[in-house]
Design brief:
- By secondary structure, the chain is an all-alpha fold.
- Helix content is 72%, strand content 0%.
- The chain is built from 6 helices and no strands.
- Helix 2 crosses helix 4.
- It is flat and about 100 Å long.
- The N and C termini lie far apart (91 Å).
């Protein structure tokens, strides 16, 4: 077991495999393989450079597409904000001397950002109002049973006191479950009878 060396000697760097079926290659293929100076590391580097260039191209393409989408959205928002500002006749918040003093691209970019911000505020306020109206339109529940309300308050109080150890509130949770079961049972009895 230990008498032979585990590494091959440097003199036998060429391996010859004998196969049962003869394998024949054209002389052109053998010559091209022998004449090739490409090694595994150079092939690997070439492949890596190719992959990096493809990734860079894809990133540039995606960035261009995203910037185009952003431009389209900004144009759409500015056109809708122009139409809403014209219809609502809101006065401008900047004075003439302010707009002239800042001047150029910086001012127009700031103005566009302000328009987007105001438009965002308006749309969010509309959504909040719609949700509030929906919530007010829903059926209101009657007041909770006194026992359930007290058990609920006990659970909340215990959880606040034991915020790091919520499992210590198991007694309060069990009491709350008992009260809910009692309430459910009375509801079922009312519905059935």
């Amino acid at each position: 077991m230990g008498s032979g060396t585990s590494k091959s000697s440097p003199q036998s760097s060429q391996h010859v495999f004998a196969s049962e079926t003869p394998v024949r290659f054209s002389q052109e293929l053998v010559d091209s393989l022998q004449a090739s100076t490409e090694t595994d590391s150079t092939r690997e580097k070439t492949l890596e450079l190719h992959i990096q260039s493809r990734v860079a191209e894809e990133l540039q393409r995606l960035e261009a597409r995203e910037s185009q989408i952003l431009k389209d959205l900004e144009e759409k928002i500015s056109s809708t904000s122009d139409s809403t500002t014209d219809s609502t006749h809101t006065p401008s918040t900047t004075t003439p001397d302010q707009s002239q003093s800042h001047g150029g691209k910086d001012h127009s970019a700031k103005a566009a950002g302000d328009k987007l911000r105001n438009l965002g505020r308006e749309s969010i306020q509309k959504e909040i109002d719609e949700l509030r109206n929906k919530l007010n339109g829903r059926k209101k529940l009657g007041p909770l049973d006194k026992g359930v309300e007290k058990a609920k308050e006990d659970v909340v109080k215990c959880l606040r006191m034991n915020d790091r150890r919520p499992l210590d509130c198991w007694r309060e949770v069990e009491a709350f479950k008992r009260e809910v079961r009692r309430l459910e049972k009375s509801f079922v009895d009312r519905v059935i009878s």
